[in-house]
Design brief:
single chain; 11 helices
Length: 229
């Protein structure tokens, strides 16, 4: 049974349009993003680390990768290129290039975002490096927007999230995009696409920064927080 009351009538299209979040067009085509958030691989582990690396759930948790981060041999731009380099979307590439050029060593949006993020881990008495990359990425997204966090905090569990308990009220377009990205990362299902994220009219620069940084966290884990340049 359709969830639309006007399905099959001349008002069906209008009803579907009204069900969308503000400023988000109906989807027809685009590049699915969940494969890029949940993909395995990335910067390759060296042969000496393949048998000795302890992953903590992160397939990119290579000893040499950590050492290179500590030695400032891996930069933010390197991770962006590794994570998104295969995507053939020029609008996205231009936005990524601009984002990389403005990176100053801070993944968080602001001080309040950082405080909310670390408060979750402190409250649960779990260190960030003990978290799975996907869990960290979802928390990073949900805590970026104060309104989104206020309606999401009760749905956060020790080892997961109950998105059915999150009821979107008075949320901005940016907050909605962060919410959809969080669902995509956690579930592996398609809720937002690269073509939507690349669109400046849909995703502002602040939300874009958080979505891209969340994708790096989902792929590389807590080690991304040590990136300084």
């Amino acid at each position: 049974m359709s969830r639309y009351f006007m399905y099959g009538t001349t008002l069906g299209g209008i009803e579907q349009l009204m069900m969308l979040a503000p400023n988000f067009p109906q989807r027809r085509s685009g590049i699915v993003i969940n494969n890029h958030f949940n993909c395995k691989g990335g910067i390759k582990s060296c042969n000496g680390c393949l048998s000795t690396a302890k992953t903590r759930g992160n397939p990119n948790d290579c000893f040499c990768f950590k050492e290179k981060l500590k030695a400032d041999e891996i930069e933010y731009t390197d991770l962006i290129r590794d994570c998104f380099g295969r995507i053939k979307n020029y609008a996205l590439k231009n936005r990524l290039k601009l984002l990389s050029s403005k990176f100053t060593g801070e993944l968080f949006l602001d001080y309040n975002h950082k405080e909310r993020f670390h408060h979750v881990n402190h409250k649960q008495d779990i260190e960030v490096w003990e978290r799975t990359p996907t869990y960290l990425a979802v928390i990073f997204l949900l805590t970026a927007d104060e309104v989104l966090w206020n309606i999401s905090e009760h749905a956060v569990c020790l080892n997961g999230f109950d998105f059915t308990q999150i009821h979107l009220r008075q949320i901005s377009t940016a907050g909605y995009a962060l919410y959809q990205t969080a669902k995509t990362i956690w579930s592996g299902k398609e809720y937002i696409r690269i073509s939507e994220i690349a669109d400046k009219e849909l995703i502002d620069d602040y939300a874009f920064k958080i979505i891209i940084n969340a994708s790096l966290i989902a792929k590389y884990g807590a080690d991304v927080f040590s990136i300084e340049k």
